[in-house]
Amino acid sequence: MYSYNGILPHIGNPKFTFVKGDIRCKDDVKMALENVDVVIHLAAIVGYPACKANPKLAENVNYLGTKNLVELSRIPIIFASTGSVYGSVEGLCTEETPPKPLTEYAMTKLKAEREVQKHPNHVIYRFSTGFGLSPRPRLDLLVNDFVVRALKYRELIVFEKDYIRSFIHVKDMVRSLLFAIEHLDEMNGEIYNVGSEELCITKEEVALKIKEYVDYKLKFAEFGKDPDKRNYKVSFEKIESLGFKTKYSLDDGIKELMDALSFLELRSCYYNHRCVDDYERKGSDI
Ligand SMILES: NC(=O)c1ccc[n+]([C@@H]2O[C@H](COP(=O)([O-])OP(=O)(O)OC[C@H]3O[C@@H](n4cnc5c(N)ncnc54)[C@H](O)[C@@H]3O)[C@@H](O)[C@H]2O)c1
Q1: Diameter over CA atoms, the chain
Q2: 1 found inside a domain
Q3: Which of 6, 39, 124, 145 is deepest in the core (most CB within 10 A)?
């Protein structure tokens, strides 16, 4: 759906096998589970704009796809869920905070969590918002999007500037998933917020940090709303108490994105919602 940039670097690695399939199709899931010890379940329609663009696809992939996987898997599942499931929260958000999802994306991910909880061996991660460079970068994510606007358009308008969001570098997301594989017994059956206290920051702080690297026009607006209503600090004590700590900073992500944007073209495949639109137009929604 989003081009093969993410997979190509691994082709030729004798330890890597690519199985092309669709999580909505049970035969494909069965095939993908052959000779596997653990599942890191990432497949989804990700982000509220993409899910809003095609809610039926989001429900089928995020929820029913996960249901297929849970039914067919006899091995541990590490599930990438999202902090979006909490919705609007008063005070510090812990894993005990009751989820009140506000978007299609968050609702389908919460329903998927409930399926994963039926599996005897599972770990659920509620990730902060990712940022940073990856083989197929997501330029629709907040920090990445701000860097693109600052660098390419030299202008950024920020609404709800005082809203606190939690962020995590994509490499730390990967590190946390490897950590789960190494600590499956200890972590089994639990939900963890994944991120860091240092990266629970306002949107204004993100925009000002980018200004340290690139000169651009920054404006704050009274209009505009984030449908997720995320404006709270998150506790990461639970995963940190097991020994997981993030390593990468906002500066790391901004600098590498700026380097990449000196040659990277802003293609649709880097924006989830644009591809989901295309996907529907092509009639590929089964
Ligand atoms: N990036 C973030 O900020 C973030 C935050 C919280 C949680 N997550 C979760 O992490 C996971 C990965 O997110 P990401 O940012 O890499 O998003 P992404 O959109 O890059 O990755 C999702 C992947 O799912 C695949 N996919 C979509 N429909 C599929 C289907 N029917 N069958 C098989 N594969 C399918 C896509 O091709 C894509 O490779 C998702 O489950 C997401 O909900 C991400």
Answers
A1: 54
A2: no
A3: 124
Give the model confidence (pLDDT) of 183-214 as tens digits: 999 999 999 999 999 999 999 999 999 999 99
CA of 41 to the centre of ligand 1 (A): 9
**What pLDDT, on the 0 to 100 scale, is given for residue 244?**
98
pLDDT at 231: 85
In a domain, 173, yes or no: yes
Distance CA 29, CA 31 (A): 5
CATH number, domain of 165, equals: 3.40.50.720
Those residues of the chain that have pLDDT short of 50 are 283-286
Residue 2: inside a domain? no
Q: Whose CA is nearest to atom 12 of ligand 1?
A: 42
Check residue 279 and give its pLDDT.
Answer: 65
Nearest CA to ligand 1 atom 14: 46
Q: Select from 42, 115, 194 the residue to mutate for testing ligand 1; criterion: most ligand atoms less than 8 Å from CB.
A: 42
Are 83 and 126 a contacting pair, CB within 8 Å? Answer: yes
pLDDT score at 280:
59
Domain ranges, residue 44: 8-281
- In the prediction, which pLDDT does 93 show? 96
Q: Which residues line ligand 1 (CB under 6 A)?
A: 1-2, 22-24, 42-46, 61, 65, 80, 82, 109, 127, 129-130, 138, 141, 272
In a domain, 18, yes or no: yes
pLDDT at residue 263, rounded to an integer: 92
Instruction: Output the pLDDT for position 181.
Output: 98
Count how many domains the chain has. Answer: 1
